[in-house]
Amino acid sequence: MADYTHLNLKDDVENASEKFNLAPDMEARFGRNALGLAGGGFSYQKLAPNFDAPFGHRHTTQEECYVVINGGGSVKLEDEVRELKQWDVLRVAPTTGRAFKAGADGLELIAIGFGPGGEAEMIQQPWAE
After folding, report:
1. What are the angstrom distances between the C-alpha of 49 and each of 94, 112, 122?
2. What integer pLDDT is reported at residue 1 of this predicted model?
3. Helix-, strand-, coil-residue percentages of the chain, each rounded to 5
4. 107: closest CA among 128, 80, 93, 87?
5. What is the pLDDT of residue 42?
6. What is the dihedral of CA 36, 7, 102, 17, to 10 degrees?
7. pLDDT for the residue 74
8. Beta strands in the chain (DSSP E)
9. Residues 115, 62 contacting (CB under 8 angstroms)
10. How far is Cα 92 from Cα 56, in angstroms, rounded to an integer?
């Protein structure tokens, strides 16, 4: 018998944003635990049009890549802001703080984490002026 797990991200993986009262402006579905991954991880994230994520994060050891699959917006990397559009791919080193902001069409992305993970330092109100 083959060893595999098959889930639908939208139907079978909970929207973690609901627990933090961020839905419907934000959707975040994390696949690491849902699929029982031994290393690495991934998530699907969606921000409503013109929504600024109220937090960002950084890691100790986990490098991440983000693939914009729909819409666009901005990412704040420490004190630098970069624009993002559909099919852009962004690699972020573990200790670099990052936070996302959706543009007029919203922002949908897949985040892929490499190496040990699960830990994150949260950055509160990264878009505050």
Report:
1. 27, 23, 23
2. 78
3. 10, 50, 40
4. 87
5. 94
6. -70
7. 98
8. 26-30, 41-47, 55-58, 63-77, 80-85, 89-92, 98-114, 121-124
9. yes
10. 13
